[in-house]
Amino acid sequence: MALHLVLKVLGIGEGDEVIVPDLTFVATANAVVLAGATPVMADVRRSDWCLDPEAVKPLITARTRAIIPVHLYGHPCEMDELRAIAQARGLRIIEDAAEAHGAEYHGRRVGGLGTCAMFSFYGNKIITTGEGGCVTTDSDEFAERARFLRDHAMSTEKRYWHSEVGYNYRMTNLQAALGVAQLERIGHFIAERDRVLETYRHYLEPNGVTLNPQMDGTRPVNWTTCVILDDIDRKGRDKVMARLKEDGVDTRPFFYPLTALPMYESSQQPVSADLSARGLSLPTYTDLEEEEIKTISQALLQAVQSSLR
Ligand SMILES: *Cc1c(COP(=O)(O)O)cnc(C)c1O
């Protein structure tokens, strides 16, 4: 909803194109479709799993209006390069920061690096209101327009006067209260998630397992602890996950690339396809204990061993 609202605020719709990463949660592209525009999928970089500026450039056409970088699994995108491209071509940047509350890029927080940004407060995000989310922007004009459209586009001067079609995209006060309390504890949540990732690194990296990326100049947050398995295909990865499930360890596969989904089917983006097939997320939450992380790590190493046999 927040992404849809931002697109409406920026006047993006029918006939427009918006560049999104191929590897993301489906909502990034769905919002573009909901606004009446067309999502164009660009590949991600192997180094940070985020939108590749070099892949964006050749996809820009006369119809392109915006780029939506997604800070995937909590890692900030290469924003300087994306901003330079956007500036040169007169495009908007809308950050999808749904998975990256608190992450920093060259000392600046995500959510303040584009024209507008959105955060999700869904149940599995770094802070939650059960369902919900928010829009951030440093433009008073866009903020005012977003508040107007989310409240049925009702005139602030004349009650029940509507000059255009708006939405009910308001958050309930009950959920907002929960969100305020969550926000007071966000430092704790981020620190504990960092601890979880560092503990996984301790047990897994010496065994050659690749975990979440960390590019110079960035301060990622650990939305989920991710693993990219070596020398394996999608079937093998799924076998590892099934084996872990038998050991009582719940995992999640990486997102399918958008270009693999029926409604967005188009030519495969190699890096997105490869990461998607080999990636999985391990249990990640604030009070996950070292002993549990050790057990999960050992189960993973064993599951990988047995899948190679
Ligand atoms: C979770 C998520 C969303 C959508 O958030 P909802 O609150 O579930 O609508 C959008 N983009 C990304 C990248 C996400 O991970």
What do these coordinates show?
A six-stranded mixed β-sheet has the order 2-1-3-4-7-8, sandwiched between helices. Strand 5 (104-105) and strand 6 form a beta hairpin. The longest helix has 19 residues, at 186-204. The termini are far apart. The protein is 37% helix and 15% strand. The radius of gyration is 20 Å and the shape is globular. Helix 1 (2-9) packs across helix 5, helix 7 crosses helix 10 (290-308) and helix 8 crosses helix 10 (290-308). It has helices spanning 2-9, 27-34, 53-56, 79-89, 140-150, 173-184, 186-204, 234-246, 270-278, 290-308, and strands spanning 17-21, 38-42, 64-67, 92-96, 104-105, 108-109, 116-120, 133-137, 218-219, 225-228, 252-253, 279-282. It is of the alpha/beta class and 309 residues long. Pyridoxal-5'-phosphate (PLP) is lined by residues 24-25, 27-28, 70, 96, 98-99, 120, 122, 133.
Short description:
Helix content is 37%, strand content 15%. The chain has helices at residues 2-9, 27-34, 53-56, 79-89, 140-150, 173-184, 186-204, 234-246, 270-278, 290-308; strands spanning 17-21, 38-42, 64-67, 92-96, 104-105, 108-109, 116-120, 133-137, 218-219, 225-228, 252-253, 279-282.
What key attributes describe this structure?
309 residues; alpha/beta; 6-stranded mixed beta sheet; 3-stranded antiparallel beta sheet; 10 helices; globular; binds pyridoxal-5'-phosphate
